[in-house]
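Page 47, continued from p. 46.
Same chain as before, 423 aa.
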Amino acid sequence: MLVAKNKALTINQGGLGSLLNRIQTLFVGMLKIWSIPIVLMLSIASGFTTYYGLSHFIVPWIALVITIAIQSIIVICSLEIAGIHWKANRLRYLSVLLSLSVAIMASITFSYFKFYEVSQSSNIRISRINDMRKAGNDYLDSILLIKSDILKELNKELEKATTDVSQAYFGTHSQVPAAYKNMVGEGAFWRHYNERYQIKKIQFDQMDKEFHQLDEHIRMLQTSLNHLTVDTEKNILNAIVGVQEVQLQFNKIATRSGHTVPQAPVLMTYDQFSQDVTPSFAMWTDFSLFAFACAAMVDFFTFLLSYRLETTAPGPLSEHEQELVFECLRQFSEFRINENDELEMVIEKSDLERARRYSDWSRMFAVGFLLSRGFLRKIDERSVEFAPNLYPLIAERMGAKLRQIKAESLAASKADNNQVSDE
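Result:
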């Protein structure tokens, strides 16, 4: 009874382990399959951003061709470099690495423009508003300085006219004839200076009235500039109209007073304000680390997943090919586990084989065949390592051989038992 329970427990445990192993194998296989559409989607995403940036510098159809070439080079070189070892072929390794580096740099460079536009859109909007405010405020500051000079001149002239009138009334003016010195009264001399004073006062009052009107236009312009973030389209229009009104009003005052008028700013329209940023290499001067990281991240993931996809062979081996490969690989004798945790074997002839003039054509054919199919990777001139997809094939063949040996052993044991029984 106890033996039966132990046997049942062993069977159940074996069945559970087998089930878990199948689930794990299925999960790993699904991940490998799922990696293929992910790589394609990443390439399409990176290709879109690359094409967007590239199309602003060259003809669109040429940009499309170059973009396809760039993304193809990234995927192909990522797959190829995963199967190349530095010691195996340095020139090929460097050429593939150089091609991959150039393609990734080109992709990141032109993808950066799109990510810059997206990530910096709010900053660009704020920058444009600040530029408009600065241009408007600088213009108003120059106007206020000239306005202050004009008022100082008018005040000085009015004060002089007031002093002349007062001195003419009391007869103390320097221009009063000696006979009328210190004579108080409103004589002809006083009336002359009083008339000049009244003219200056009228001019001052008129200028003050015009400056009050100008101040109202300035106030409306400043209000529009301060509220550009609220109702941008309306306030940009108001700001443009405000600049024109201020310019027209102030130019008349300044010209009449003999002052040079400042250059009025040309504010951008709402269409210019809301248009997208045109990619240019000036974006690199205002470098955005976030935009660069996003552009690099897409190409890095494309490279990483493509690199990992190299573990899948281009196609399965037929039954006859598997048998041929298994029998030829069995003829090698030097194996070890290398630093990549893969099974490595020496493909050169041993000293004994050289002495015997052994022909290794068949097994070298198998090595070349497996290298071309992606089941082996070249380490250096004298050794190769197993790719992960070769282990299941060898395990299946070894299992078949073991089952065959076991079946032959059982058959021989039965034959012996039958012979003993007959005797």
